Structure formats: structure tokens, C-alpha cells
């Protein structure tokens, strides 16, 4: 029997064709593009969520500062006298004006759309343990290193029976004793008698101005307080019978009516562009739906505060 031997030649190998490479590249590009788009969307959503959270936190804080400032306007302590009379030096026009405004509840003034001022305490109140009207000296019951009264400051003293506005005079002195009391010299103390066991308080009062500048910065007495505020709207609750609010009006429509309450609204905006396209967000502010032509996020917040002495 004859056997034939067959030798196997080298097996021919087949490579990847150009078309297959192109298809693989296209698939890779599509997947990469989808991943990049998803990553970009996630980043945009994260920036939007972060900006929204920051904006709401800033808005709540700003609204709280506004509310507390309005509530403090016209603060006189526990009141005093049957008619709420405030003793003062009638020869001093500034003292006379401040006393009249406190008695009449005229504690807020608005000069234009971007600024208003409040007549309110500008520091903590201090317990008065005694008044020496002969030497024009009052003694405060605690030694506070933050006490920063200066010459010319106006101080309200109230013992729940009488009130007086006094002015720190040129001979102003502030001295602390070892017992933890502070002696203050001021003009006008001869109009108020305070017993050492009375619940009298003393607090400095001044005109405090809030102004919104063109850069969205709210300034308090000239110092920057908040940034990112686009607009402030104030409405004043007035009454014809001084009992309840009949309507809310803008400052341009105020007459001789008594202001009982203030309704405020703040519009804040993000520092950077976070929206996908201009005009994407619609928001409600100052009684109307609005839409900005930029990519910044906006948030509106407000509240209503009853003024003191009403």
C-alpha cells in the first residue's frame, strides 16, 4: 500500500479591513461624544444646583436682615408716659426732629427707588442703674468693651415711666469702675430721673441708610453688606383710621397717611452664567412674571413687617 504524504502550507492570516477600522472609529467617536455630552450636562446641572442653593441661602439671610432691621426701627424699649412723650432739649433741632419722629412713628424714609433709611437703635441696649441729673452722668450696669458711643451720638434713656433723648456732649467721658459699671456724661439728663432699682435702659439711636448701588451691592451706612441684589421693592401699608392696613402703596404715592407696615421684596441674581441659554428662566417679581435676557439665575424673596408703636 502506498501512502502519500501531504504537507500543510502556512495558514493564510486575515487582517482587519479599512472599512472595519473606520466603523470602529465612528462607534468610538459616537460613544465618546455621548459620554462628553453626558458629562457636560452633569456639570451644568451641578453648577445650576450649586448656584440655586447659594442664591436661596443668600436670599434667606438678606430677608432676615431686612426683617430684623425693620422690626427694630422706632425701638424705644418698654414705652413711657401716657402719651409716649419723649423729654428732650427743644433748642436742639436734631434732637427735636428725632423725638417727633419716634413719637409719631415716622421711622422709615425713602428718597428714591434704590435707597431708604431707618431710625433705629444702632447698638445693644444697656441697663441704667442710676442717673445724676446734677452732673449729667448716667451709670450703666455693665462694662462692655464693645460700647462705642462717641461725642455727638444720640442716646435714648427709658425707665418705662419716662423717656428722654440725650446727646453725648463735648465733655463726653466714658469710664469703667471695678464693679463692672460704666459712667457716661451726656447733656439732657436733667429731664429724666431714674431710680437705681428701675428697669431703665439706654440705647444709641441713629438714621441708618440702606442703598443699592449700580453693581448690585447693598450698602449699609456706606459699607457693603450684600452683593448680587438686582432690585429692591418696598410697599407701604397705610391706614385711614390708624387701626389696620387698608392698602399697600409705593413711596411716590404716600401722602399724610400713617405707615403701619412695610412689605419688601428682594431680587437676587447669581454671580456667574449658569443657565444653558439666555431667557431660559421665568420668575415672578414685583407683581409680574419676568424674563431676563441673560444666563444668570434669579431668585425673589420678600416679607411683610409691622412697624413698632402700632
TrEMBL record:
The keyword Zinc-finger does not apply. It holds the Pfam family N_methyl. The keyword Nucleus does not apply. GO terms for biological process: type IV pilus assembly. Keywords: Membrane, Transmembrane, Transmembrane helix. It comes from the Bacteria. NCBIfam families: IV_pilin_GFxxxE (TIGR02532). This is Prepilin-type N-terminal cleavage/methylation domain-containing protein. The chain crosses the membrane at residues 21-42.
Amino acid at each position: 500500500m502506498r501512502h502519500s504524504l501531504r504537507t500543510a502550507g502556512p495558514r493564510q492570516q486575515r487582517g482587519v479591513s479599512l472599512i472595519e477600522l473606520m466603523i470602529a472609529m465612528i462607534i468610538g467617536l459616537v460613544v465618546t461624544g455621548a459620554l462628553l455630552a453626558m458629562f457636560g450636562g452633569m456639570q451644568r446641572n451641578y453648577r445650576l444646583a450649586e448656584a440655586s442653593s447659594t442664591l436661596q441661602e443668600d436670599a434667606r439671610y438678606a430677608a432676615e436682615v431686612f426683617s430684623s432691621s425693620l422690626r427694630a426701627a422706632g425701638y424705644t424699649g418698654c414705652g413711657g408716659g401716657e402719651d409716649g412723650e419723649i423729654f428732650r432739649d427743644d433748642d436742639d433741632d436734631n434732637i427735636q426732629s428725632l423725638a417727633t419722629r419716634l413719637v409719631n412713628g415716622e421711622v422709615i424714609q425713602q428718597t428714591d427707588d434704590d435707597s431708604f433709611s431707618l431710625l433705629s437703635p444702632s447698638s445693644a441696649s444697656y441697663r441704667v442703674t442710676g442717673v445724676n441729673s446734677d452732673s449729667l452722668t448716667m451709670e450703666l450696669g455693665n462694662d462692655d468693651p464693645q460700647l462705642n458711643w462717641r461725642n455727638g451720638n444720640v442716646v435714648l434713656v427709658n425707665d418705662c415711666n419716662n423717656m428722654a433723648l440725650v446727646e453725648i456732649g463735648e465733655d463726653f467721658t466714658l469710664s469703667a469702675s471695678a464693679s463692672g459699671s460704666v459712667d457716661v456724661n451726656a447733656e439732657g439728663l436733667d429731664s429724666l430721673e431714674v431710680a437705681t432699682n428701675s428697669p431703665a435702659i439706654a440705647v444709641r439711636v441713629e438714621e441708618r441708610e440702606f442703598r443699592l448701588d449700580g453693581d448690585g451691592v447693598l450698602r449699609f451706612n456706606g459699607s457693603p453688606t450684600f452683593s448680587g441684589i438686582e432690585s429692591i421693592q418696598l410697599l407701604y401699608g397705610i391706614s385711614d383710621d390708624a387701626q389696620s392696613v387698608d392698602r399697600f402703596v409705593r413711596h411716590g404715592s404716600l401722602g399724610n397717611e400713617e405707615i403701619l407696615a412695610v412689605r419688601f421684596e428682594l431680587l437676587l441674581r447669581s454671580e456667574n452664567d449658569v443657565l444653558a441659554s439666555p431667557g431660559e428662566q421665568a420668575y415672578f417679581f414685583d407683581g409680574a412674571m419676568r424674563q431676563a435676557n441673560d444666563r444668570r439665575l434669579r431668585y425673589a424673596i420678600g416679607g411683610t413687617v409691622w412697624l413698632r408703636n402700632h
